[in-house]
Amino acid sequence: NVIDVPHLVRRVREVGLSHVQLALGWLLDAEAPERQRHLEALRHSGLILTAGMIGFAGEDYTAISTIRQTGGFVPDDLWPARRDRTLDAGRLAAEIGITRVSTHIGFIPSSGDPHYTEMLDRVREVAKAYAELELTLLLETGQEQASALLQFLNDLAVRNVAINFDPGNMILYGAGDPIEAVGILGRHIGHVHLKDAILSDKPGTHWGREVPFGKGQVGVEELLDALDKVNYSGPLIFEQEADEARLAGFRESLEALRAAEADAA
């Protein structure tokens, strides 16, 4: 969360970047006058806002098992509040001029599970409201295998829902090979996180370990090549959550990306 827009701008410029995916929760929670002050600062910041992002109170990332139960649109008792929060985030994004908002909708049940249709209905409800705001809802990868996510998108059959592809998440969750996943999800990818990780000794049960992009098991050149093969031409956004020395980690990640691009040229 940003809290201070000038501080955000300084940090982004220090790394030599200009594109940002903006967390929206802190703005939603701000009092109206403070929110307007922040929005005005964002409008004059020179930053290019590629997408918004929204998470939810009560999500427990202590373990994969806890986030499976508490994440996203899954908990029935929390769904009304989380739906409203997601819609509020969409209205705020539209006010700023952001056209895409990403979130983790939570673990998608298997297609044979009675809750599968319920999850489809919940995502369709949000997508319909977002369509009226001319927004795309981005579902962030990580929890499920790419083939299961593709089936969900096909069953969803909604035009303004796409994928926020995060290769690091797939390793953290033990959800399969991210390079293979790019080929499977292909045209549905609408936004990309450059995040890296190392697989745990018990994939799918224990978390993997997040590391700066280029220091883990994603494979920088392999990822760029896979994205090129599916004709992805959208934003590439560094995301790094675990490392407290975040700015140094971003610099390492940027160096890895530039080195891979130079090799490709």
Mean residue pLDDT: 92
Structural class: alpha/beta
Q: Runs with pLDDT <50, length 5+? A: none
Percentage of residues assigned to helices: 40-55%
Strand content: 15-25%
Please state the CA-atom Rg, rounded to the nearest Å: 18 Å
Task: Give the spatial strand order of the biggest sheet.
Answer: 1-2-3-4-5-6-9
The count of strands amounts to 9
- How many DSSP H or I helices? 11
Shape: globular
| Largest sheet geometry | 7 strands, parallel
The SSE order reads HEHHEHHEHEHEHHEEEHEH
Quaternary status:
single chain
Give the N-terminus to C-terminus distance in angstroms.
36 Å
Structure description:
48% of the residues lie in helices and 15% in strands. With 265 residues, it is α/β, with parallel strands linked by helices. The strands form two sheets. The protein has a seven-stranded parallel β-sheet. The protein has a two-stranded antiparallel sheet with strand order 7-8. Helix 7 links the parallel strand 4 (136-140) and strand 5 (161-165). Helix 9 runs parallel beside helix 10.
